[in-house]
Each structure stands twice: as structure tokens, then as C-alpha cells.
Design brief:
The protein has about 325 residues and is of the alpha/beta class. The protein folds into 2 domains: about 200 residues, Rossmann fold; about 100 residues, Rossmann fold (3-Layer(aba) Sandwich). About 45% of the residues lie in helices and about 15% in strands. The chain is built from 14 helices and 10 strands. The strands form 2 sheets. It has a 6-stranded mixed sheet, sandwiched between helices. Helix 8 crosses helix 9. The longest helix is centred in the last third of the chain and has 15 residues. About 55% of the residues are buried.
Length: about 325
């Protein structure tokens, strides 16, 4: 079993010496070759499967570091605003650390699977009558009062943990890929990945950041963020990499999501397919790593919208064979 992320990379993390390691076994996620997608897209495609993290998303990489540092600084509680994945991760790591967690959610905008995780883990969930941006402003104000530590990606320790995915990719491939593709919601992960490759000193891959063309209404709930808090920095990183921010229709995101599931057996939430959708649009060639950021069970309702329902049959072999086609 691989060591916890903080222990593996502590010499590359700015944690206080006295910071404990609050871990659920995050990191060391699979880097999967994708032969059918490679043939389809004319490139050497690899999938960094971040849905294998403890709460099912890449957020755990940053949360282990943020919560460990928060305890070292004497935090008595944590707070975040979330469209879902941060909520689940905050709730899990707060529970692991024995800290209360307050999670502010934009009302009606969070997938059921993520709410279920946070509820089961004992966090205090509050639905804000407003947007994600308004929920984040409220979380910031609560943190500034000194009662709670903010664990959104505005907390730099979150990005410090998330940068480790770049270290793992370079270790597994022997060098950075030609292209790194990922979903673009708030932009914190884009910044973190670029920071990680910069620190390695082996060159920044071309970054393809897939965003929803209609950020306010996309079915990809994890990137349903109208005003990315890291927009300026993230898009500057994309530009200097020679990459692009790729605006995608929901139809393109669903097509990539379907390809991941049916061609490669990787069941992710729709937003996690945005990086692959950007690759399908741009066709960059070369060695391409797609960050697949969250498990499909995060957003089970999406399956009802894009996949056929089960077919009811009699318990008869002939009827089953006919229905099976």
C-alpha cells in the first residue's frame, strides 16, 4: 500500500513541522492507458483516474494538506462553499480530524451523490439562496471572523496538495506528457497542476482546460461556476503553456462521458469528461493525459438523463435473448 500523499511528498509541501497527517489514503491514483480512445483521437491517451481517491474526487489531494495545516494552526472548525466535491471531501477530512465542518451550498445546484456523502459524514449543510460566488463570499466572511478555517482552493494549502498529481504523472510516465487536459470550473486545479509541473522543472505540458459554454446551466454540476475565482491566474497559465480554454456544449461533454464509460470502462461524473471533450475538439496528437476528476456515483441523476433505463423481461431464456439483441 502506498504511503499517504503528505508522507510521500512532505519535502515538497510547505506544511508546518508540527502539522499532523490527516489522511484517508489519498493519492497514488491509477494512470490508465486508453487504447480505444487513442485510436479514435489519433493520440496516445492516458487517463489519470482521480475518482479512485477516498471520497471519489481529486479534491482529497488538497484537503489532506489543508486540514493538516489547519490543525497545526489551531483551527477548531472548517468551512467551505461547494458545488459538491469539495463538500464531500471537507466533510470526510473534518470527520477524520475530529473537527466540525460547515458547508455552504448554492441552493438546488448540487448533485445528490455529493450531498449524500456530506450528510452521512456529519457536516452541517446550509443551502444559500444564491450562486456559488455568493456562498463563497459568505464562507470567506465566516473564516475572516476567526471561528473557522477556510478550506476552499483560495486556501493555498489546497493547491499545494493538488499539485502532487503532476508529480505522480511525471513519475509514472518518466516525463511530463505533451498535453494535459482537465475540466475547468473554478480554475484552482488548473493552477495547481501547472504549479506542480513548474516545480518539477521539466517543462509545462500544453494545457487544455475544458469549460462548459453555458456555465450557469450546464448538466456538468461540478463545473457549474459562473465566475471562476481563479480565472485570471488559471487562464494565464493556460496561455503560457501554449494551450487553450475550450468552451464545450453539454452535448460534447456527454459524448466524451459516454466514450469514457463505453470504450474504456471508466465511470465518471459528466464534468470529469470535460478534459477529454477538449481533446476531442482540439485533436492535439502526441502523448495526452486527461485528468478524470470525479467518480460517476457523484452524480447518479446524470445517468437518467443520458443513458437508457433497464428493460423489464420475463425470466425466460428466449425472452432474455430477444431483449438482449
Amino acid at each position: 500500500m502506498a504511503a499517504p500523499l503528505v508522507e510521500r511528498y512532505r519535502d515538497r509541501l510547505p506544511l508546518a513541522p508540527e502539522a499532523p497527517v490527516v489522511s484517508l489514503g489519498e493519492g497514488s491514483t491509477p494512470l490508465l492507458p486508453a487504447p480505444r480512445l487513442s485510436e479514435q483521437l489519433g493520440a496516445e491517451i492516458w487517463l489519470k483516474w482521480e475518482g479512485a481517491n477516498p471520497t471519489g474526487s481529486f479534491k482529497d489531494r488538497g484537503m489532506t494538506v489543508a486540514v493538516s495545516q489547519a490543525i497545526a494552526e489551531g483551527a477548531r472548525a472548517v468551512v467551505c462553499a461547494s458545488t459538491g466535491n469539495t463538500a464531500a471531501s471537507t466533510a470526510a477530512y473534518a470527520a477524520r480530524a475530529g473537527l466540525p465542518a460547515v458547508i455552504l451550498l448554492p441552493a438546488g445546484a448540487v448533485a445528490a451523490g455529493k450531498l449524500a456523502q456530506a450528510r452521512a459524514l456529519g457536516a452541517r449543510l446550509l443551502e444559500v439562496r444564491g450562486s456559488f460566488g455568493q456562498a463563497l463570499e459568505a464562507a470567506l466572511e465566516l473564516a475572516e471572523s476567526g471561528s473557522h478555517a477556510l478550506v476552499n482552493s483560495l486556501n493555498p494549502f489546497r493547491r499545494e496538495g493538488q499539485k502532487t498529481v503532476a508529480f505522480e504523472i511525471a513519475e509514472e510516465l518518466g516525463a511530463p506528457p505533451d498535453v494535459l487536459a482537465l475540466p475547468y470550473g473554478g480554475g484552482g486545479n488548473t493552477r495547481a497542476v501547472c504549479q506542480g509541473f513548474d516545480e518539477l522543472g521539466a517543462g509545462l505540458p500544453r494545457i487544455l482546460a475544458g469549460e462548459a459554454a453555458d456555465r450557469g446551466k450546464t448538466l456538468a454540476t461540478a463545473i457549474r461556476i459562473v465566475s471562476p475565482v481563479h480565472r485570471a491566474e488559471a487562464e494565464a497559465d493556460v496561455q503560457r503553456s501554449g494551450g487553450a480554454v475550450v468552451s464545450l456544449s453539454d452535448e460534447e461533454i456527454v459524448a466524451a462521458w459516454t466514450d469514457l464509460t463505453r470504450l474504456e470502462g471508466v465511470f465518471c461524473e459528466p464534468s470529469s469528461a470535460a478534459g477529454l471533450a477538449a481533446v476531442a475538439r482540439e485533436r492535439p496528437g502526441g502523448r495526452v493525459v486527461c485528468l478524470v476528476t470525479g467518480h460517476g456515483l457523484k452524480d447518479p441523476d446524470a445517468v437518467d438523463r443520458v443513458a437508457p433505463p433497464p428493460i423489464e423481461v420475463d425470466p425466460d431464456p428466449d425472452a432474455i435473448a430477444e431483449a438482449a439483441g
